[in-house]
Each structure stands twice: as C-alpha cells, then as structure tokens.
Design a protein that fits this description.
There is one protein chain. Helices cover about 5% and strands about 40% of the residues. It is built from three helices and 32 strands.
C-alpha cells in the first residue's frame, strides 16, 4: 500500500501566474472571493482570478525605484487591500469590480524605507470558523496520499533548463498623514484604542527609527503608539536599540479580552512580545535564532506561531497568555539557511515556508513533522500564503512568477458542511 503511494508521480503546481516583470515580493488571498493580490519590486500590484488563472487588474501603486514589499488583506477590513512600498508610504485601496480604486482610500506617510513587512492585526476568532479539522489527520497518519521519498533535495538544487516543476512529499478617500502628525494620545496610551469588538482596525509596522514598531489606525490613518513607548531611557534588558533593525512583525488580538498584542523580531535573532496595555516593557523576550528573524506567523487561535530566519532553523513556539511567556515548541533544522516567508493555514493544520534555496516546505503545524518540499521556482522564494478556504497555497519568487499549489486540500463534502 505504502509502496504504491510512494510510486505516485509528484504533482505540478495547479497554475503558474506570469505577468510580473520584476521579483514578486508578496502575495495574499482575498478573504472570501477567488482573488489573489501580488506585489512586485517595480511597484506593480496585480489582482488575479484564481479560478481562471488570469490577471484582472494591474496598477503601479508605488514608486518603481522603491517597489512593493507587502500586500495585506483581512476578512474584517472589508473589500480592501493594503500595499506597503519602500517609498515610505502605506496605501489602503478599495476593490471595485475586481480592480483597484483609482485613488487610495488612505495614504500613510510612515517614512519607513526598509524591508520589514507590515501586519494587519488579526483576531483569534476570525479563523475559528474553519471546519476542516479531520481530513488532514487521517492523511498524515497514513503517510499522505502523495508520500514519496523521505529525503531533502541534493546539494545541487539549481533547476535545470526545462525542469521547473517537482514536489517531494514526505511522510508523516486619499488622506495623507505626515510623519510628525502623531496622535497626542501616544504619550499616554488609552486602553480603548487597542480593544476591538468588530475585528482588526489597526496595523503594526517597523518605524522610521531602526528598532521601533509603530501602531497605526486603519480608519483614521493616525499613528497611535510606538513600541517601546519611550525608546529613550530604558534599561538594557528592555531596550530595542541594541537588537538592531526590526525585521518582522505580527499583530493580533486575543479573544478573551480583545487587546492588541504584537510580536516583533529583530536583527540579532531575538523576538519580543508586546501587550499594548503596557507599551514600555515587553511581556516576553526570547532569542530562538542566531541570525535576523525574517518572518513571523501566528496561528488562528493566537496561542502559538512560527518563525523563520537567516539561519538554519525554523522555530515553532507557543504563547502562554496567562504567564505572558513565549516557549519553544519545536526546532526544525535545515540543510541550507534562509526562510524569507512563513504562513499557517486557516485550519491550523499545516504551515508553509518560503526558502532562499527556491523551495517551499510544508510541515505539520502541530507536530512539526516535514510533509513535503515543493519545487518550481528558479530563484529565491519571497513569500507564501494560504487561501481562506484552505484549498490553495500561493508562492511568490524573484523569478517573477507566482505558483499555485493544492496541498492536502479539504474535500468538497467537508467544505460544504454547514
């Protein structure tokens, strides 16, 4: 039985989206429609129909010399997409008939010019409705329907001419806000600014200071806070200056009380967990990596997540909200360094990583077991993203393409169950 499964030919991407003329830096799915947003290094934002695999809209939304580093959506900010460029701006766009509005609804002048991607705050309840919880358990326990050899690719991982598709599945209203227009409440933060009953209205991003994280209101385009609240005069233990640049952020709400929390990672490999009720001192400080942490993702319950870095490790961790501690759950060692992006699927079953070695790796999120290595791209992978219905995985690359994959997709019967 297992031998027959191991002999099954590996699947190709279900589609390869071509059209960008520069490195595709980021990708994200619409929370409810069959749309994919991609942003490129030349400032182009494309909207793709994921059913017909074609471009619906193409717009240059940031300066070509700076490009786009992040595109983001959320089920609770409506029919909108947020783009972040290295031109010091973030823009929020409305989606009209499958295309972007002519002008951004809001423009945030952040004066942030480095490569840290912003994070639209996510509530722990927005993903709790995922109902596909049993189909993967069975397939993983039985070795998976696509299982072949349990091994890493050879050291010679450059793709040969014409060899572009392989997978190894393993067992087991335009408002501009200037930089200095800080909200006067920033020096005395009000708790209600960071409480939500309707979903994410805030975003976190690296600030214009090297180690600063800023919180912005997506409704008013006002900057509400900085982390730490006062970058000066803090003890060495809580200072972020010595940690270097902020490299990745993940903002999320807690279902128990709805207060905004932020995970921020830094150039020295450390990660800090902030609660916006106490913006001066982090809840927890850990250092799981020896190199800059390039990507963070928090799961749907906001009780844990994954980090990828420039070193040879992927870390799974848990967040203990009662004690305010971040604990290592699983350390995954890699043969080759560099994870540029991470994504946890909506059902909290599997996780994907985007590697410098052109590979997309799939893991069982709960156990940390390797499930597969997806090979298509001929250059570094920049980002990975799962669709909200758990059916598709998108990977974007410096080779100017986006690949769509089906990895342990839920069955139609389970998808249609109400």
């Amino acid at each position: 039985m297992m031998n027959k499964k191991r002999g099954k030919p590996p699947p190709d991407p279900v589609a390869v989206l071509r059209g960008h003329r520069a490195s595709v830096m980021d990708a994200c799915f619409h929370p409810s429609e069959p749309l994919l947003y991609t942003g490129a290094a030349d400032g182009e934002l494309r909207i793709w129909d994921t059913l017909q695999h074609r471009t619906l809209s193409s717009s240059w939304v940031h300066a070509a010399g700076a490009g786009i580093i992040c595109v983001a959506t959320s089920p609770l900010i409506g029919n909108k997409v947020v783009s972040q460029g290295r031109d010091g701006t973030v823009k929020c766009w409305d989606i009209e008939g499958g295309g972007l509005s002519r002008k951004p609804l809001l423009t945030f002048k952040t004066n942030s010019y480095h490569f840290c991607k912003l994070s639209v705050a996510k509530p722990s309840t927005c993903l709790a409705q995922a109902r596909h919880t049993s189909y993967l358990d069975e397939s993983i326990e039985q070795g998976g329907s696509l299982a072949v050899e349990l091994k890493e690719p050879s050291d010679n991982y450059d793709l040969e001419e014409g060899d572009h598709s392989t997978v190894e599945m393993l067992d087991g209203g335009g408002t501009s806000i200037e930089k200095d227009q800080r909200d006067p409440r920033e020096s005395l933060i009000q708790t209600e600014d960071f409480v939500t009953t309707e979903g994410p209205k805030l975003m976190a991003l690296a600030g214009d200071r090297a180690s600063e994280v800023q919180i912005w209101d997506l409704n008013t385009a006002k900057r509400l806070a900085s982390l730490p609240q006062n970058c000066e005069g803090r003890s060495a233990e809580h200072s972020t200056k010595s940690r270097g640049l902020c490299m990745a952020v993940q903002a999320f709400y807690l279902s128990t009380h709805g207060f905004l929390n932020v995970l921020a990672s830094y150039e020295d490999g450390s990660m800090l967990w902030w609660d916006l009720r106490s913006p001066g001192i982090p809840l927890s400080t850990v250092k799981f990596h020896s190199e800059p942490v390039l990507s963070l993702a928090v799961d749907g319950s906001c009780m844990g997540g994954i980090s990828g870095a420039a070193d040879h490790k992927i870390m799974l961790f848990t967040l203990d909200h009662q004690t305010g501690s971040c604990l290592m759950k699983k350390e995954i060692n890699l043969e080759r360094p560099g994870i540029a992006g991470t994504s946890i699927r909506a059902d909290d079953k599997i996780v994907a990583t985007a590697g410098w070695d052109h590979r997309v790796r799939i893991y069982d999120y709960r156990k940390g077991n390797a499930l597969g290595i997806l090979k298509y791209h001929s250059a570094m992978c920049n980002a990975v993203a799962f669709s909200a219905d758990c059916k598709l995985l998108a990977s974007s690359s410096e080779d100017a393409t986006v690949a769509l994959w089906e990895v342990y997709p839920p069955s139609d019967s389970k998808t249609d169950t109400t």
